[in-house]
Amino acid sequence: MEKIRVIIQNQQKSVKIPTGLRMLVRRCCNAVLRLENFDAPAEISVIFVDNAQIHELNKKYRGKDMPTDVLSFPMGENGVYDINHDTGAKVLGDIVLSMEKAMEQADRYDHSLEREVGYLTAHSVLHLLGYDHEQGGMDRVRMREKEEKVMTQLGLPSSSSYVLHGHEE
Questions:
Q1: 79-90 confidence digits (pLDDT tens)
Q2: Number of structural domains, the chain?
């Protein structure tokens, strides 16, 4: 597999970034690209933000006036990507991840922050590669299967079904 460069920036102060989390994000990116047989040099940017920052981006780019857990900004379309002319790497895009929302969801689903951030990273890398679950159906199922396969490979299998209990809906 070719070299994968994952550029990580922390632009929030709400959640302390645990030791090893940046390495986990890199491992997730690599695992998804391996699973998808992506064999070219690649570059992915991951930015940790807080709920206020992701709320602003979600409103601006998706017209949704609320914070979300993660946003993906693909730089390619139909397998064609911009190239970083200094490195020759395909620029896959940017992942913006709310650490506050990840912490909330880890609590809600009763698993670790690492599991949640890993899952959100895998989910977003699949979006950068063109996967879309918004329409539901088989696309959603395939994407979910790939996310869980990556999480299991990384030793972070699902401990819940992501189904909310009656009082949490």
A1: 889 999 999 999
A2: 1
